[in-house]
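Hallway conversation turned thread

IA: we were arguing at lunch whether anyone had actually written out WD repeat and HMG-box DNA-binding protein 1 end to end. Turns out nobody had. So, for the record, here is the sequence (1195 residues) and right after it the structure tokens. Reply here if something looks off.
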Amino acid sequence: MSLIRKPTRYAHQEGHTDVCYYSGEKRGLVTCGCDGDVRSWLNLMDDDPTTSCISEQAITVISKDGKIFVGNDNNTVQILTYPDLEKEGIVTRFSAPVSALATAKNSSLIVSGACDMRIQVTNINTSDSIELEGHEAPILGLSLDPKEEFVASSSADGSIRVWNIKEKRTVHVWNNVVPKCNSFFIAKSYCTPSFKCTDGSCLAYPSNKDVVIVERSSWKELCRLKCSTLKTDLSICKFSECGTRIAASSLYGEMVVWNVETKEMIGYLEHEQDTKITALVKFGSEAILDSEKNEDVMENDIALPDDDDDDENVISLNKIKASINLEDDQKSHSDAGFEKPTFDTKAFVPNMWNDVGMVRCFSSEDGEECSIEVEFHDVTVHRSMHINNYLRHSLAALSTQVLALSCAPSEDGPSKIVVIVLQGWGSGNKEWILDLPEGEESDCLAAGDNFVAVATSRRNLRIFMIGGTQREILALPGPVVAMNGLGNHLVIAYHAGIASDLMWLGLSDARSPTIMDSDDIIRIYDKRSCQWRVLCDTNAQGKGRADHYFIIGVSEHERNMRCILCKGSYYPPTTPRPIITEIDLSAPLCEPESEKTEKERKLWEIGSSPLDETEAMLTLIALACRSNLEYRAVDICEQIASTKVIDLAIRYALRVNKVALANKLETIADAKSNSKDLKEEDVGNHQDDFTTNGNSSINDQEEDDVSLPSIKKPEIEIKPLAMSQTLKRVNPFLKAGSPSLSPKGLVPLDPVQEAMGSMGPWHIVIAVAISLVKFPVAWHQLSIVFLAPPTNFSCIAPLSATNESMTMKCEVDVGNGTIEECTHFRYDKRIFRESIITQWNLVCDREQLANFAQSCTMFGVLVGNLIFSMMADRIGRKKPLMIAIALQSVTGFASAFAPWYELFLVLKFICALSTGGTMLVSFVLLMEIVGVEWRSIMSVLFHVPFLIGHVMNPLISYLTLTWSGFQMAVSIPSIFLLAYYWIIPESPRWLLAMGKSRQAEQILLKAAGRNKIPVENVKLALETYENQSTIRQTKSNEKYNISHLFRTPNLRLKTIYVSVNWFVCGMCFFGLAQYMGHLDGNIFINVAVSASLGLVGMAISFPTVYLYSCEVFPTVVRNVGVGLGSISARIGSIIAPYIATMGYIQPWLPPVIFGLGPIIGAVLCLFLPETMNCELPETIEDAENFGKKKSEEEH
């Protein structure tokens, strides 16, 4: 029996489509698609199907007991009536779009799976539901056992599982069967399993190009069904109702049917457009219905069984137009298409002649062997060449300098360009090869004396130097016809017209016309060269084939664009409000991942600075020398390098012992110096025209030379300026009078913040709750003033033999000239009834043990910062915060009952360790939930409870008057902070970073509800965040450490100055707090007044130095720099108690030290640059230039 393909009918717009067969009294078909519509087709002649829009996307559909059940992106399974498709209720809900549904013929169960990795089995009669969890990625396909015992599921985590419904457990797993991904909508294959419909005696699932059938219960493989004609892997398989046949569909529109009993293939069908089949449905005993997704055109086809063989039931736009005799110019572009040349532009011309020589291609009769012969007219200059054409080159170009060849793409790889340099300077291999980007094929090839040009199938004109360095990419208005080069000139013939639709037109921030076409290519008009340049190929930006970007604005200065990602459409939806994302503009150069291409991109990208160009040029020269391609280094210096760059290249060549190369570069530098004045040398880093010969610069051309498009020079020269002259960086897309949404250099667009808001009731509750942890922090860190207050004492044993007063004496004259140490003391308890000094006799030779207790506390804070920072990155923010609060309360309370000083010290250290944890984790959590515009304010307000806690210390001590009572009083409130477990959420940013999108979504939904933000924003934010994570690229593979802060002179000084200020803040703040307790007068009043007035400035300095450190250190070592400063502050706080008690040596020492410290810090601040309204440094080089005087830079 052979398969017969029936006519096709348009169903839904481009995107995922599903279909089911309604077998009730009114038979028909039901379809759903990514347009959110569900459509009921009563029969094949139904040209007006009933349509109901239920959501933004309707993903999966089944029929059961006279009802239609639809899974959608509203995270529900919607019930609809048939055929009116009216909403009748909801079966179940998920926290993510429902991606799969399944049922059995005589079953009352409906199985649903969603993108939140959960599966629910629901009885539609009783509404009872069973949840199955275990997959680690979205559910792709489901099948229900007819006996209602098992469920089979496929998931994007790569596995197929069989579940026991009653026991709620997995009974068998096949791993690495499904291609892994993180979204249902970008899944390559679904690998949907299928139970045998009659008795469920076996289960089938696709595996590569086979269908595997396994036995029920044992799950052992019974057989594999194969098809030798399949082009690609299978995606879906389905048993027929009778159980004797099984059908499967592939990724390229192929469908195969087998006889299960005989294992023989019944038939094979192939879609002419290679469209992906997204659904199969059982229809009767033999016929099978498929729903196809066309990712290349704007149609989805549904194969419908029909008794007629003609095409009367096909809804065709072409037929409608033909019936009313539309002229060709009235037909739409999608029908007419673009007329290609009638001849094959890529056919290798057997006898290609020009003034240089002839290139011929020879092939054997069987076609297995192929070679290329190159003959030159002047044999004294070039000898003949014989090349094995194993790549099957079909294009060739020949000049006096190069032989260029190009081949079409094949199964083994993409289209390639091979260039043999005929007269390159130096030794080494003179051949280079480049791969064109995927999906791009060379159509024409040309070569001149200093360039190679390739016109491609995507209307790109790629230009290379003869040494292999890539230049700009020009945009051709139409398909190329022919192209030729001579000397430094290039002539191109192309078809007039436009080969794709215009999707966006606008102006960049530099007022350059910019367009994007339907192929998602962005082009910009260069006004100096009057040419269109290819700016970016957004297909390489981590989006689906059916997705597109809608541009909001293009910035040449920032080299990025703001846009909206449109799922399955060219334009964004009106509701819910779309979220703007930001992507970099990166020219689609060949081999984009290589280091060489990264540096070439910096040479020719828009808005590049001279400093970046110089660095990129030197790196390219170094790479050429390292690869023994000296001719490439010479080529770069001859064509685009300034004399300054050549001088640096000469130094490098001498350093790597390439003396001959250095001499050659000196010759080039001398020639350029003679032809240009000093002013032209300073701006000669970037040239725009072809050179006339190897010894003249690109600018020294005749006026009739054809120039390459130039890089638009910024209106303001990009170079480091003095901070007084630094311009405020402006958002080019910001409307006048509107606040900045995303200050460049600080933070990118934040989709997570869009979902939960910047500041609202939800934020306020959490911010107030989190800030309360600063009360115990202040109480414990500054408690030493009242735990070990200055106490007068008298020696009472041994007895003195003299009448001398024993007050504050540590030694006793017992007679006969014998001096002994005092062993027993009487303490003045008029103010404090008990302290750690009186408890453990911390006087005389044990006096410094009181100071050691405070030093141990500050060291514990330092260790706590380190330990809890690692814990917070590993297990989240909330759990470490709860652990720290509980540990702080328990150890602080227990230390009040310590019978020994040593035990007190241990408990105090642990308490300080947890205090350091609460400080760090609470601050990080707060900064991760508030909006960027609130972070500076909140970072200051966050420390207000600390100051209030400092002021409260004297009151608590006054009310307790004992060290144990004080310790209990400051530890008990922490117990109430354990209620944070039910108040404080986990950080949604950390959850998203760890891939826990389900938990993050729940928190964001709650935040959106409390802040009255549309819930739809949460879903869009999660999709945008996922997209940004996909397209985010690592800028540097270099690992940075603390040594990078001291490698360059300017950054080294700034690091020292900032670290000294951190040290002064820590030393003076905690030292003064303890010193106030040693002054004459009432200790409670002294501390309270100092906390209220004198220490406010020092308290403000802490958040100030923290914020300044974040701004002055470059991004690559910012965490390291701030961490170094924090360590400096802790060292200062560790030694502060010893300075505070120096008054016993000389009364003037503590105030002098505490006074000189801030003065020294203030003087050092004068040498630091202002960071307000300045672009933050990104690299070590940026930080080195940040703050240098303009005069020094010019010098």
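OS: looked through it. Residues 353-584 form a domain with the Neuraminidase fold (CATH 2.120.10).
IA: good, adding that to the notes. Residues 73 and 97 are 4 Å apart (CA to CA).
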